[in-house]
Write a structure and sequence with these properties.
Helix content is about 70%, strand content about 0%. The two termini are about 25 Å apart.
């Protein structure tokens, strides 16, 4: 991104790339400035809108993020990523019926998009449609569909919870999932392991070993949301972040 900007200081997508890196580093103000610069340079660019929407979502600006992703979809209505992100936002805003309609529409148009299938798991879980959630998990977790299905069954059925937690914590197949602290904590919370989920998040607040801050707003964390330990994690990483000036579609 820096090299691109050295060649062309008005390269909007280079600012988008810079914003993504800053977001992954949890440098929220720097990321916000980069995305807003990109939108000023290219106010109609669907990719810039999509990425800014994902940034706003990640820092807890859910309604502005939804407005921005809807503008991105107006520009690029066939985008599987933008459709999946809109479904995510509707899910975290507890608009389950709308989230279901969006994710099913997205998957019908883009059945190969793994992001959509991963989000569909959580949409179906929120609706207690466990068979559908397991089917989506098997698609999303293609390298070992059975162990992914085991996690869903543990969420759905308390009698299967202990074996699901054991797999989550010890299975080599799920090692990649455990490497992202927020993903790890999300599944722990969904499986009712709230203390362990909080401990993982507290480690994350120190080490920063996650790039999925948007998952912090998922309904699975709702039982922890008022817990002082959860609030302390958010404070430590500077969330929710409120931009001084939110630009939507390149206009303030």
């Amino acid at each position: 991104a820096q090299h691109a900007l050295a060649l062309n200081p008005d390269a909007a997508l280079a600012f988008v790339a810079r914003g993504i890196v800053y977001s992954n580093q949890m440098h929220w103000a720097d990321a916000d400035g980069a995305f807003q610069r990109a939108l000023m340079l290219a106010p109609g660019d669907a990719e810039a809108m999509d990425q800014y929407a994902q940034f706003l979502y990640g820092v807890g600006q859910l309604e502005p993020a939804l407005a921005e992703i809807e503008r991105a979809l107006q520009r690029d209505p066939l985008s599987g990523v933008s459709g999946a992100v809109r479904a995510q936002l509707l899910l975290v805003l507890h608009r389950d019926a709308a989230a279901l309609k969006q994710i099913e529409s997205t998957l019908a148009a883009q059945p190969q998009g793994l992001l959509g299938h991963r989000i569909a798991v959580w949409v179906y879980l929120s609706l207690h449609r466990y068979a559908d959630a397991e089917r989506q998990m098997r698609i999303a977790n293609q390298h070992d569909p059975d162990i992914g299905a085991l996690l869903v069954r543990g969420i759905a059925d308390p009698r299967q919870r202990a074996i699901a937690v054991q797999a989550l914590e010890t299975s080599p197949v799920l090692g990649g999932l455990r490497q992202d602290a927020i993903v790890h904590a999300l599944f722990l919370a969904a499986l009712g392991e709230n203390d362990r989920a909080l401990a993982v998040l507290e480690e994350f607040a120190i080490d920063g070993n996650s790039t999925t801050s948007q998952l912090l707003w998922y309904p699975a964390f709702d039982p922890l949301r008022n817990n002082p330990r959860f609030k302390a994690v958010l404070k430590e990483i500077g969330l929710p972040y409120t931009p001084e000036k939110i630009e939507v579609g390149g206009k303030s």
